[in-house]
Amino acid sequence: MAIAAARRGFRVASSSPARHVLFLGQFVAVGLLAIAISGAISLGLRHASGENSIAGDGQSAYLTPARCADLLEYYPEASSCSAAELAHHADEIVSYRLAMAPVAVFVLIAYEVLRRTWRITPAERGGQRRWHSALGVVAFGVAALVLLSMGFVNVARGDAAGTARWLSDGGVSLTFCGLYVAYRRMALVAG
């Protein structure tokens, strides 16, 4: 009897905070996916244009002799401590972002399992779609505005350090904002 009840799922009260967590989990998963995509683009930019296009540290970092020795140990091909620091920063930018892909997949799987287990009704799902799409348009729209502005300011100043990263991240945010606009329109039409 308990197994049959578990297969049917159970209802969580519509006022329950668990439903809000479920909604936010879906939004977080999409955000993590956007970060992972920006990591893949940063990897391509790094190979096409070099570390300075995404890291943008330049020659400004002061490094202690011990830190310099550590970096040169990990990046023996670097010509200087600054070059090793730049390579290290570029590695962090790419690897930390790409690491978000499996986290996003895990969160999406958890969302789907909980959604099915908690038996979200079509009316509740419609309400979640409307809120999710509105939040996505605002969040990714603001992120696109900020990131693209930073990139264009660097272009206007003639500063190439890190500019490609700001512009590509802004492009990813703008793309997700556009996808959320389309999703919002569909959610509103569906009722």
Topology of helices and strands:
Layout: H1 2-8, H2 17-49, H3 65-74, H4 81-98, H5 100-117, H6 122-157, H7 163-190
Could you tell me the strand content as a percent range?
under 5%
Secondary structure: number of strands: 0
Q: Please, how many domains? A: 1
Largest sheet: none
Which terms would index this structure?
single chain, 191 residues, elongated
Could you please describe the fold and organization of this structure?
The protein has helices spanning 2-8, 17-49, 65-74, 81-98, 100-117, 122-157, 163-190. It has one domain (16-190). It has 191 residues and is mainly alpha-helical. It is elongated, with a radius of gyration of 22 Å. The two termini are 37 Å apart. Helix 2 runs antiparallel to helix 5, helix 2 (17-49) runs parallel beside helix 6 and helix 2 (17-49) packs antiparallel against helix 7.
